[in-house]
Amino acid sequence: MRKSTVLLVLLNLFSITGLMAQQVLEGTVVSKKDNVPVPAATVIPDNSSGKGTSTDFDGNFTISVDQKEGTLTISSMGYTTLEVPYKAGEKLYIELEDEINRLEEVVLIGYGSAKKGDLTSSIATVENVESIASRPVSNVNDFLQGNLPGVTVLQQGGDPTQEGQIVIRGYGSFATESPLTVVDGVPYYGPPVNPNDIASISVLKDAAAAAIYGAQASSGVIVIETKSGKSGKPKVAVDVYSGFQKANNLPTALNAEQQARAYNTAADNSGASRLSAHDAEQNPWGQTTRTNWMDEIFRTAAIYNVNANVSGGAENVRYMTSFGYQKKKGVLIGTEKERYNFRVKTDVDLTDKITIGENVYYSRTDAVGTNTSSAYSGSIINAIYMPSAASVYNDDGTFQGVVPEELSQFAGAYGDVYNPVALLMRPTTTNPTDFINANVYFKYDILDGLKFKSTYSYNYTGQRYKQFQPRIPELGRTNLNNYLYQSNATTNKWIWDNQISYDKTFGKHHLNATAIYSSQHTDYEYYYQEGQGFSSEEPYNQYMGNATSVLMPETDVYEDALTSAIGRVMYNYDNRYYLSASLRRDASSRLARSNQSDYFPSASAAWRIGNESFFDHIHTLNDLKLRASWGQIGNINSVGYYSYDVPMYNTMVAIGEGSGLDDKGTYLGRQSNPNLQWETSESIDIGLDASLFNNTLGLTVDYFEKRTKQMIIPGLEDAHQGTLAPDVNGGEVKNTGWEFSLNYNNNIGDLQYNIMAGASLLDNKLVNLNGYSNSGIDYIPHSDNVRSILTPFRSKVGQPLYSYYLIPQQGIFQTQEEINAHVGPNGQLIQPNAVPGDFRFADTNGDGKIDDNDRVYMGNYQPDVTYNFTLNLDYKNFDLSMFFQGVGGAKAFNGYKFSTYNASLQGYNLDNRVLNAWSPENTDTGIPRLSTTDSNHTYGNTSSWYLEDASYLRMKNITLGYNLPEKALAFMGDQASLRVFFSADNVFTITNYSGLDPEVGSNGLDIGRYPLSSVYTLGLNFQF
Question: Structure pTM?
Answer without folding.
Answer: 0.86
